[in-house]
Structures are given as C-alpha cells and as structure tokens.
Amino acid sequence: MLVASLGAGATACGSKGSPLAARPYDAADQVGFNQKAGSRPVDPGRPLEVTAKGKDGRITDVTVTDTHGRRLAGELSADGDRWHSTTPLAAGVRYTVTVRTEKPDGSPGQRTLSFDTTPAHKLLKVVFGPDAGTYGVGQPITAELSEPVADKAARAVVERALVVESAPRTEGSWYWVDDKKLHYRPKEYWPAHATVSVRSNLEGIQVAPGLHGATGAPLKLEIGDRVEVETDASSHQLTFKRNGEVINTIPVTTGKPGFSTRNGYKVVLGKQYFVQMRGDTVGISQSSSEYYNLPVYYATRVTWSGEYVHAAPWSVGSQGYANVSHGCTGMSTGNAAWFYENIKEGDIVRVVNSIGEDMDPFGNGFGDWNVPWKKWREGSALIAGTPDGSTPADSARLRPRV
User: Fold this and answer.
1) Nearest Cα residue to 236 out of 172, 317, 152
2) Fewer CB within 10 Å: C terminus or N terminus of the chain?
3) Dihedral, CA of residue 131, residue 133, residue 138 and residue 140, to nearest 10
4) Looking at residue 291, what is its pLDDT?
5) Interacting residues of 275 by C-beta distance below 8 A, sequence separation 6+
6) Confidence of residue 33 (pLDDT cuts 50, 70, 90)
C-alpha cells in the first residue's frame, strides 16, 4: 500500500528546446504499481512490481531504497514496460521508490513514492563476540544466532549481512560451526595494531519465510602486538615471540603420558591470578595417586577443559628436562609472572611434539587456526562445500588441570 509523493528532478544537460533540457514531468499517469494505495503497511512477503501504462512511454530506471540505505534488487524488462523486485522486501522499514520514464519524443518523466512494510513476527537476533577491547592477532570473531539456520540459501543471506572490516584490510571468511554459531578469522593472523569493526545488516531482511533479521549491536576490536608462543614438548622449552622477534625462552614441563598436552594452535581465552586446581574436576578420583588439590598462580587459560600455562613451583626440578604435569604447561613462579604480564587474550599459543591428541578446532576453546585456509573457506555458505549444519559435540567446560 503506497503513499505517493511527487519527486523533483534536476534539469538535465542539453540545448534549449531539447527534450533532455526539460524538467522531468510527473509520471503518475504513466506508472502503475501492484499494491493498492492506502495508509496501512505492505506485506513484505509480496514482491514489488512497477508497470508502464499505455503506449506513450516506457520505464528507463527504478531505484528502491529502504530506511537503512539498502537498495532492493530488481529486474527491468527489455522493452521497459515492467520492473519487479528479485529479492524479498525487508520487514518493518520504509521504502522510497524512484521511477524514471521516457516518452517516445525523449522527454523524461519521474515518479517518487514511499511505503512502509509490516514488522516481522519472528526475529533472528545476532550477538557478536568477544567483548570490545584489545586482543591478540589470533582472536576469532564469533556470531551467535537466536534461531537455528540450517538451509544453505538462508545461511548465505545471514552471512552476506554480517560485515567484518579491518584497517589495514585483510582477507577473511565466516565458518558455520553449527546452525546457530559462526566464527570469522582472517586467512593469516590479524595485522598487528589493526582495528576490526563488525556489524550486522540483517535488520528487517527475510532470512527464511516468517523469519527476519533483528537489529544487532556492532563490535569494535583493537589488535595489539603480534605475539606467538611455541611450546616444544620434546625439548621442554617455551619460545615467546613478539612481532617476529624472540624475546624470551623459558624451560617448561608439559603433560606426562596419559595426560599429554594437546598439540596444535590455541588462542588465549583469559587470565586468572589465582586458581584452585583439583583433580576431581577433570575426572581424577580423590582416591587416585594422580589426584591433586593445589593453589595455582599466574594462570593463562588456553582450553575450556582446563589447560593452562601457569606457575608450577613444585615441578621446577623437571622443567626443561621432563614432562610431569597433568596436561598444563608449568614453569617457575618468576617465569609465570613474566608470561602472565606479557600475554593477552587472543594471542597464539602453539604446542608441538607432544604425544597427545590434537587440539579440537571448535569444541574446546578457539582452535580455529588448526583448520587449513582452504578447508576453512569451505565452511562458508557463500561457496561450495558448506557443512550440512551438524553440530560438533560441545566439550564440557571442566575445571583446570595442572
């Protein structure tokens, strides 16, 4: 249902007396719409159609823009007698339609109309993560959806509307972890000291019949220095690099047989000055000789299941020589304090040469960097090879190991 208003056009270039020099005439009698005039909003599920009336002119161009500046895609017939939208209208917005026409003598006409669409009944909300702040170069962006989206076409609509921009620019892509969660990462790490901005253009957009996008809060992150940590479980050494330069090498101990530290890339999840670590929180019975109940300081978390880099004064004699922990990376209190002060969320911690299993890409923290870029791109709904939407088993968020 359309509310019409006359649109004024600027005088075109041309010689005096030429049709091109004339002010565009009001094309109200030359243009028709598939919606009836009125004051009530229009059903967004119905396509928009514009037609030329009679034989005294044709449509040359149609521009349809909504409240947010988004243009509605459409198609104009070759003879200029009909234009129709080719994508669904957004819900709960106002559209402005500008139709340009031309008479057989070349004189231009114009008609501008505005109409509202009815609000959506069911909304798809998106929440971005992590919280705003400064992070390391390995920090993925997350998008949590309020409703499951399994259909590939619907996923593509969502993915196109989730915009990630960085300065300086870097190539990146979304990956559908499951029906309600996406991760975004660059091909390589974020550039050091980059600014990353994330926003949703989903508001009002039809994702699936009866489901439209809701307003989403934007997110802005600052990226710090490029910090990369590599722990070699066979040499029992941790190497700390900042912006490509090795600035510290620390003797460590990692997981002993049966409790081996996971190989692969991990992203720092957080830091805790003090954690009480107990064996029963990770399935070790209090009656077992492996049970522990220890106060731990300077703890940097890298998995949800309880793997940390932390102070382990009880194993200083083994640090640099043997692996004696229950899966964590232990070091002296002094070294752990230094590590704690120089590491931040989003920094990369990689373990190599452990006899343990590999880091899970998604179920136990941020193991995103263990997925090769080609495989990562296949997790996008915008290219071939999208996953079927199955959800990886969520690991239990267990308490710490030592």
Assistant:
1) 317
2) N
3) 30
4) 83
5) 295, 296, 299, 308, 310, 400
6) confident
> Catalytic amino acids?
310, 328
Q: Does domain 227-377 have CATH number 2.40.440.10?
A: yes
CATH of segment(s) 123-223? 2.60.40.3710
C-alpha closest to that of 112 among 98, 124, 95: 98
Which of the four pLDDT bands, split at 50, 70 and 90, describes residue 66? very high
Q: What is the pairing mode between strands 227-232 and 348-352?
A: parallel
The residues, ordered by sequence, that sit 6+ positions from 81 with a Cβ below 8 Å of its Cβ are 51, 52, 58, 59
Lowest-confidence segment of 12-21, 126-135, 329-338 by average pLDDT: 12-21
Q: Provide the CATH topology of domain 3-116.
A: Immunoglobulin-like (2.60.40)
pLDDT digits (tens, 9 = 90+) for 152-170: 999 999 999 999 999 999 9
- Band of the pLDDT at 389, cuts 50, 70, 90? very low
* Confidence at residue 401, expressed as pLDDT on a 0 to 100 scale: 54
What confidence category does residue 289 fall into, taking pLDDT thresholds of 50, 70 and 90? confident
Distances (CA, A) of 102 to 25, 31, 54, 84, 203: 10, 11, 12, 18, 35
- Are 219 and 227 within 8 A, CB to CB? no
Q: Give ranges for CATH 2.60.40.3780 in the chain.
A: 3-116
Tell how strand 133-135 and strand 219-223 pair up: parallel
In the chain, where does the domain assigned CATH 2.60.40.3710 lie? 123-223
Judge whether 58 and 81 are in contact, CB under 8 Å: yes
Q: What is the pTM of this model?
A: 0.81
pLDDT at 56 over 90: no
Residue 209 in this model has a pLDDT that exceeds 80: yes
